[in-house]
Amino acid sequence: MTFRFAVAALIALFFLHPAPADAKETPVSPKVWGYVARPDGSIGVYHLDTRTGDLRVVPRNTVSAVSSKTPARPLMLVAHPSGRYVYAFAPFEPYNDGMDINDEGTPRDIRKRLPVWQVRVYRVIAASGALKAVQTARVPVPLAGLIPHPSGRFLYGVGPDGILCVLTVSKDGALTAGKRVRIGDTFGVVSDLYNDGPWQITFAPNGKTLYTLSGSYSMEYRNYEWRQWRVGADGGLTKIGDTWEYRSIRDGNAPKSVREDPGMIRAVSPKGDTIVARGGSGTVWVCRTNPRTGGILPPGKPLPLSNLGGDGEHRFHANPRYPLVYVGKEYVPTTRYGVYRWGAAGELRKTGSFAPLLSSKQNTMLYAEPTGRYLIEWGRTTVATHRTNERGDVTPARAAKRLPNETGWAVLFVAPPTP
After folding, report:
1. What's the rounded Cα separation, in Å, for the pair 288 and 298?
2. pLDDT at site 214
3. Cα–Cα dist 410/78, whole Å
4. What is the mean pLDDT of the chain?
5. Predicted pLDDT at 102
6. How far from chain centre, in Å, is Cα 376?
7. pTM of the entire predicted model
8. CA distances in angstroms from 122 to 13, 18, 125, 227, listed in the order given
């Protein structure tokens, strides 16, 4: 998804505290589990039957809201690449955490006013989907995001001022703070109503290259800076090449290359040889990568998406099992989804499309669950599933149904290994 979380403090070292009480475990046949961060800070648990595509609530496994000094709000949930662990924390929200639209304080001044943040580490019980508490890490400043390294050895905590905190993951999933690396300018520190910058960090599938975006925008301008990094064995970063910049107020000419139009990375091919990025201009670029460094090679080719209709930005959903990508609109009603297939380096071609099962008037998100067999349309209180295969066929599996007491947007699907 596109992440736009504003940050107003530097990530500091973690201080470990005893793990809280565990969620109750209810035996259910081991399949795929879904976790939803609810507005009150609790975590809902769902079971996906991979034989039928049916999704149901497992109410007794709900994780209660975290008691902390942070206001009650939806947690951000992040899965370990192995599917064994889930990390939960409340992301920083500038307007709810001591900053108003007239606040022009420096990050240091803002840090003095902030409460303590926590990251909770859970082990996924494969047989029941319950989350067993492993660790609570107290962070004296807020986090905007946690991004897992593909190897599972590190998590990267995103803080303000363009700082990443490299967290080492132990065998039981617990976190230990390590290196701090500056990767750019301020990540979304809000100085007024209009200056709220987007940020993103994305790893190549082999974990050897990192792509970072930071920027700012308003009603009058949009500025992005895109950097590429080599990832060391210890999680440290070494910059590759120059910084790419997009400035909406420049000369008025449409960019002719991704080099002039960096932006959000929307999809990366399983081999890492192709990257899809939505530039600051709104153009979606399909680009090859350098096989030696992993760096993105300009100019890239524009990908036409106008035939998918509707307003809003396009969201790309990669199938974790097959070389397929499904494209729809983000957080808005979708009238049609496109099916695309990865080809040779720098190629992504459309092979078909399918209609949504939920009402075209309902705002939805599409998820490709870990086994690659199903696509799940999530409409906050309503859900439907499609069946898919290696050929890219998409057919209805389960018609729309209501999920009781559900009000969360983001869903994290996990397929933990069976002991």
Report:
1. 8
2. 79
3. 11
4. 78
5. 46
6. 17
7. 0.84
8. 20, 13, 9, 32
